[in-house]
Amino acid sequence: MKKILDVDNLSISFDTYGAEVQAVRGVTFDLYEKETLAIVGESGSGKSVTAQAVMRLTPMPPGKFVSGSITFQGEDLTKKSDKQMEAIRGKDISMVFQDPMTSLNPTMTVGKQISEGLIKHQNMSKKQAFQRGIELLKLVGIPNPERRINQYPHQYSGGMRQRAMIAIALACNPKVLIADEPTTALDVTIQAQILDLMRDLQDKTGTAIILITHDLGVVANSAHRVAVMYGGKIVETGKVDEIFYNPKHPYTWGLLGSMPKLDQNAGEKLQAIPGSPPDLAEPPKGCPFAARCPFAMNICDKKMPQYTELSESHHAACWLLDERAPKVEQPEYAKV
Ligand code: SF4
Ligand code: MG
């Protein structure tokens, strides 16, 4: 498979109340055609900031590009002008957000919103764009698309709005689709339908997807690879099976432990990870998870661990993987 996106050593900060919050600290990952990469982490881990940076949507100021490169089809997006980015955004790279109500325009019909991109990027006439809009609504499973296309977002249900957002995002056959918590606001049944839909559409179109989520539960059936983020860094990355069945980072263990299990008894408590994420205005010198990690050693808060290669696709940054460290087995609670 062809590499389509290459993010290297990306760092993004925000100036807030005189402090510099280092939201993303040296993040490196790549994305291949036809694959879904899930970026998983708690709120404040830097996952949304990373996604926005790829779209060059970081508000600047207060945001600040500190370092790194974002190579898309061989070109560094960090070097593009705003105008050049406008031609890429919505056409080659598009985004689906958590809450379609805030990203859909309430004063425009859904049809008009789908047509916009097609007229702008694909040189379609209004009539062609409208026809294509009906096809797209059908593709994302909206019933009566001929009638629905003339309606406003508030006339759609939550699930239908999310489908419409996906239709708009896919209108120009983007190479990369970034979905930031696309199902978080939806109930569980609709959530599953939307994730199925995204997978189906990927099979048909080959679009590569970056799926941003705090919920490891949605990852298992939706992603090929996973990057686990904590404190502005990727702490573990691997194929879905490697992350679920052979996780190596204590934070990943914590996330797996806080996931509801199929055989969970009603009333049985989930293992939430105690403590709170680090203050990224003063990021820890060492491992970002040290203050919450049940396995922390002396060195952990002093020095950032390097990535250990566990397989060609599986990497984790933890001192436990150093050969001098005591052997610690994956705890029972983290087993899925
Ligand atoms: Fe825990 Fe240390 Fe590993 Fe960080 S480096 S996850 S503190 S054991
Ligand atoms: Mg977010």
UniProtKB/TrEMBL annotation:
Main location: membrane
Family, per entry: Belongs to the ABC transporter superfamily.
Domain ABC transporter: 5-256
Annotated InterPro entries: AAA+_ATPase, ABC_Ni/Peptide_Import, ABC_transporter-like_ATP-bd, ABC_transporter-like_CS, Oligopep_ABC_C, P-loop_NTPase
Subcellular location(s) of the protein: Cell membrane
Protein name: ABC transporter ATP-binding protein
Keywords, sorted A to Z: ATP-binding, Cell membrane, Membrane, Nucleotide-binding, Transport
Source organism: Tigheibacillus halophilus
Membrane topology according to the record: Peripheral membrane protein
GO MF annotation terms: ATP binding
SMART domains reported in the protein's UniProt record: AAA
